[in-house]
Design a protein that fits this description.
This protein is about 0% helix and about 45% strand. The chain is mainly beta.
Length: about 425
């Protein structure tokens, strides 16, 4: 048997939600879902060498200092407020007005110890250490509008996500047994019990045009051995009973933890193990696909370390051998695979830059490349894995320009245009919002 990869190593931090909504390069952030189309009327929140917090419009304009000597993490913002956790007390949700000059930082939700929060649409959702889930208008003037929408949530697995009008979370059924469940996002109606087991983190909840897919660990109490216990469930957008795709043949935990969602599939690494430092070992692994009906087939001769859905039955991915690939799938099998002329490839992303297909970008060594329509490559000069950030619902790539005093720049997803947003040196990009 094999030791399970520790989830905090894989997912950054599964207890806090603010940044898990977006995918940021170089800082261990992942995304469970992406916006259908990018917008360009938000803000970049960043710090400079004076340790102050600034923001600047994503479309360009004057930078504004938000707070001096800022110390916070897991930032997210609305048009009126910035939410975050204080580094000195990560159980208290902090809020800062973005419209009142000289406003002071204050606690939101009083003395509640917060395990997880998410801003979705106009609402803020959060779970406290008593297993109660609340929501409030995110732009509410105070916390008097906080409303309880669920209770008996399992605080051992606090990750949740609001998808297709419902909140998906873990509940303690009969006070002790962990079940994956859902409920109306406003708290009305009954709890829908999906399956006994746990949604290990919000990254295992994936929404698509036809419904929501969830990967459930049916033996969540096991934290050392990699068991065959991961079952894929799907639920239609219109509601209805959950359907188990592979109840009779659950996936291995390590295989699943090292995997990725696409629009139509879950991609996993059969045969992956972990070393003594909890790093995935891909030497004997191969990439496989499972669809929503439970059918599995092989995608790659090597393990898959990064993947992006291109649409049109095409998947772009990085093999554990350091090569980049684009495969076409039809009728439950791979019909063609193109190996790109790249070496030492580490990551691939699909930038949803306002088009249905988006823009595929591969990162290799200290360079980045956009994939053209004919599958040839265009180098993105100045962009590297270490200096850049990508958010799925914001167009472009944001990066520190080493050739201009680490100033903040934005480059279009295809690399054809770039815009200087602020003078450097920028030391960290905290978050990018669409409001």
């Amino acid at each position: 048997m094999k030791k399970i990869q520790r989830l905090t190593k894989r997912l950054g931090c599964i207890l806090l939600a603010g940044v898990l909504i977006s995918s940021a390069l170089g800082v261990g952030k992942l995304t469970p879902h992406a916006s259908a189309a990018a917008v360009d009327n938000g803000y970049v929140y960043y710090s400079s060498e004076d340790e102050s917090l600034y923001r600047v419009p994503t479309a360009g304009g004057s930078a504004q200092m938000i707070s001096e000597y800022f110390e916070g993490s897991y930032l997210d913002a609305t048009s009126k407020y910035l939410y975050f956790f204080d580094n000195e007390d990560t159980s208290k949700l902090q809020r800062l007005s973005l419209t009142e000059p000289g406003a002071l930082i204050s606690n939101f939700a009083g003395d509640k110890d917060i395990l997880y929060y998410q801003i979705e649409g106009d609402f803020l959702y959060f779970m406290d250490d008593n297993g109660v889930i609340y929501r409030s208008l995110a732009d509410a003037a105070d916390d008097s509008q906080i409303k309880q929408i669920a209770n008996n949530a399992d605080t051992e697995f606090p990750g949740f996500s609001v998808e297709n009008g419902r909140i998906f979370y873990n509940v303690l059924k009969n006070g002790s047994n962990t079940w994956a469940a859902s409920k109306s996002r406003d708290g009305s109606g009954n709890v829908q019990y999906i399956a006994q087991g746990a949604i290990i983190s919000s990254t295992y909840i994936h929404s698509g045009p036809t419904g929501t897919s969830i990967m459930v660990d049916t033996k969540p109490a096991e934290t050392y051995y990699s068991l065959n216990s991961m079952v894929l469930y799907t639920l239609p957008v219109s509601g209805g009973n959950p359907k188990a795709a592979n109840a009779k043949s659950p996936l291995d935990m390590n295989a699943t933890y090292s995997g990725f969602w696409s629009n139509d599939y879950y991609i996993y690494n059969k045969g992956v193990t972990v070393d003594d430092e909890d790093n995935f070992v891909y030497s004997k692994s191969k990439g496989f696909v499972i669809d929503k009906n439970g059918k599995s087939f092989q995608l790659s001769q090597s393990g898959i370390v990064s993947l992006a859905d291109m649409g049109g039955n095409k998947l772009a991915y990085v093999g554990s051998n350091g090569k980049g690939y684009i495969s076409t799938i039809a009728n439950g099998k791979v019909t063609s695979t193109k190996t790109l002329a790249l070496s030492n490839v580490t990551d691939v992303y699909n930038l949803k830059n306002g088009t249905a297909a988006g823009q595929i970008v591969f990162f290799a060594s200290d360079k980045a490349y956009a994939v053209k329509a004919d599958l040839s490559l265009s180098k993105l000069n100045g962009v590297t894995w270490d200096n850049s950030v990508i958010y799925n619902d914001v167009s472009g790539i944001y990066y520190y320009n080493a050739e201009d005093n680490e100033s903040l720049y934005k480059m279009s997803a295809d690399g054809k245009t770039k815009l200087k947003l602020s003078d450097g040196p920028v030391t960290e990009i905290y978050t990018i919002t669409t409001k």
